[in-house]
């Protein structure tokens, strides 16, 4: 089964769960969704009316956690950890995987130093193990590790949820690039 098909089934499951819950009961759905090993897209869950209704309530922290996983990085979590619940180990892993995807959106060559800083990894072996075992084997990225030059060359990276306002920018870029293909 393709990663997209598997992800679609998981998204559908969590959308149904979130639709059936309200308020603080959504907390367990959020933890389960953000911990799930096959789920890397959260915008459909964010769009569920019961989730959107968390805005401005005592339970809005669950909405913030979902937004973090939809658009944020490990560094974003660290900056805001005093306002957010402590993440369980599976959530930490997931957020670090999503951080690699975010970095791969803008650069195709990621230095080990940048990755180690962004992921709170202390040595090259730990970084390479994470990239191979938790990112490449999961089908999130493909690329080449260059130990000598200390970088990861990204050949493929799965997409992340679009941030608010990002779709218009993305469409303008595609329109701009398509002008050159028709000439």
UniProtKB/TrEMBL annotation:
<feature type="domain" description="PCI">
    <location>
        <begin position="1"/>
        <end position="159"/>
    </location>
</feature>
<dbReference type="Pfam" id="PF22061">
    <property type="entry name" value="CSN7_HB_subdom"/>
</dbReference>
<dbReference type="InterPro" id="IPR045237">
    <property type="entry name" value="COPS7/eIF3m"/>
</dbReference>
<comment type="similarity">
    <text>Belongs to the CSN7/EIF3M family. CSN7 subfamily.</text>
</comment>
<dbReference type="GO" id="GO:0008180">
    <property type="term" value="C:COP9 signalosome"/>
</dbReference>
<protein>
    <recommendedName>
        <fullName>PCI domain-containing protein</fullName>
    </recommendedName>
</protein>
<keyword id="KW-0736">Signalosome</keyword>
<dbReference type="InterPro" id="IPR000717">
    <property type="entry name" value="PCI_dom"/>
</dbReference>
<dbReference type="Pfam" id="PF01399">
    <property type="entry name" value="PCI"/>
</dbReference>
